Automatic annotation (TrEMBL):
Enzyme class, UniProt record, top EC level: lyase
Domain Indole-3-glycerol phosphate synthase intervals: 4-253
Pathway in which the depicted protein is active: Amino-acid biosynthesis; L-tryptophan biosynthesis; L-tryptophan from chorismate: step 4/5
Coiled-coil ranges per UniProt: 1-28
Record key words, sorted: Amino-acid biosynthesis, Aromatic amino acid biosynthesis, Coiled coil, Decarboxylase, Lyase, Tryptophan biosynthesis
Organism of provenance: Aquibacillus salsiterrae
PROSITE patterns: IGPS
GO biological process, one term: L-tryptophan biosynthetic process
Gene Ontology molecular function, alphabetical: indole-3-glycerol-phosphate synthase activity; phosphoribosylanthranilate isomerase activity
NCBIfam families, alphabetized: PRK00278.1-3, PRK00278.2-4
Protein name: Indole-3-glycerol phosphate synthase
Gene3D superfamilies: Aldolase class I (3.20.20.70)
Amino acid sequence: MTILDKILAEKEKEVAQLKATYQQGQHQVGFERRSLYDSFMHADKMGIIAEIKRASPSKGTINEAVNPAEQAKHYEENGAGVISVLTDTPFFKGTMADLKAVRKAVKLPILNKDFIIDEIQIDRAKDYGASVILLIAAALPKERLQQLFNYTRSYDLDVLFEIHNEKELAVAKEIGANIIGINNRNLKTFEVDLATTERLAKDIDTTRTLVISESGFSTKEEVERIKQSGVRGILVGETMMRSDDLKKTFDELRVPLS
Ligand SMILES: O=P(O)(O)OC[C@@H](O)[C@@H](O)c1c[nH]c2ccccc12
């Protein structure tokens, strides 16, 4: 059983509970659309999706005591384009309350980073103020991914469609994903390799599809390297959570796009 299988098994239980208890529309925070696609496609610097990540299965505790609202404000002040909030509790120690707090604290689009397997999680994300939903190709069959994709788009929210190999890239194209996240981390082995982005981005029309490279970024050299593949954004978790000089970290990673 892989870690992803374990996480998904837990998610099934969470969703069953949610279906029994969740009241639609309870948390609506004055929803207004904040588009990831438009802002990153037209930027002249590498877009940064900065993540609130307390812990992870591969690294254990990263910063469990973080104040998500404060952290998000610092991300915004220093040049983030989107804030990603991990809301999975059993494996990443995040909560939906974190997302709500972040939504109140910043003006940027917010990505609800979770393992989405059911429409009710999308309803909840929207109610809490998310503008972008993560769909992980490896988590579900294509038909189900298509349904969840269409459902999210019907709310006018963006989908970050996460892939890790050629087969998943084919699925992303069939579904019509306009924002593709290439995860450099192998969810089975936790190994990180930027070559994953280079290999897969080659087969994407990056003038029309927004490509985000995810995981493993800590230096300017790494960003300069993947920029050559037409990537317009990176998703950075651990480096942001551990940084004691966010201004410097952002200045380094936000390389010019030309
Ligand atoms: O902490 P890193 O190496 O910067 O990685 C961030 C992000 O890519 C990672 O948190 C992530 C990518 N895809 C995911 C899916 C679920 C949970 C987490 C993730």
